[in-house]
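pasting input
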Amino acid sequence: MDSRSIWVRVPGTSANCGPGFDSIGLACTVYNDLQLRLTEEPGCKITISGAGAENIPCDERNIVWQSVQYILKKAHMEDTYKGAVIHMENNVPLSRGLGSSATAIVAGLKGANALLNNRFTRKELLQFATAIEGHPDNVAPAIYGGFTVSTTTRGDVECFTLIPKMRLKLVVAVPDFPLSTKKAREVLPKEVSMKDAINNIGRAAMMTAALCKGNEKFLRNVFEDALHQPYRASLIPGMYEVFDAAKKAGALGASLSGAGPCLIAYCLQRRHVEEAVGQAMKETFAQHGVKADILIMDLDTRGAHIINDR
Ligand code: HSE
């Protein structure tokens, strides 16, 4: 018998947050929704609407379908459910550094797990999602919501999620060109200097502590990075100038969102600077020949969840 149909909502995410390369991430209030039904009949029927729909494969290469198959195998249910009916409604921009592939992986895992009566825990879903994605910093906030700090120790992924003591507004400039994570990782060095590593360790630790305590003063320089952004700057025209413009307009700081090309500025809600920061980022990008849309978002605190009221 085919399964019932279920809807899952998964937030977009911004990884690294400057110094936390491959370990820190946050979830934001832009979402992809998945409707999923498992079928006894083999094969997948996939329909997609919204952001980047025309560039997402609707066949065996589809990441949602691959993630559904992954969890069916883990549950030894692949002989019961050989196919699926998948419908995606996407708002997260595709291949821009807002975790669109993580939303697809998490949606497939979370949806199929719910249809299997929640056979696996969230921690197990995090293991599976990290195995599929290769690093935890997008899938962790997509699953848990909030700010997340993740580590992998001999294959075991741990994730700590925190809701900052201060309210943040997240201003994201979304350039009109895509950038694949693969390409943005190819420009990274194999080794880094001790000085650069120390620089990042201090900032990542300071960021986490200051967010937990709600201490704004210590957030001023924590979004700087020496491990990946300097190498990726050549792929994003005007990147450092956009960071400077955001800070001048009142943001606490700014960073590359994931592997880019989106840039994200972190603002205090009580300062009401997010509109001005967005405008400054847009204009500065334009001065470097880049057309960008601005998204102003909050932190998502819920993570992936089943929606029943659609
Ligand atoms: N941490 C990853 C990177 C995020 O920066 O390459 C992108 O998926």
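fyi The chain has a mean pLDDT of 96.
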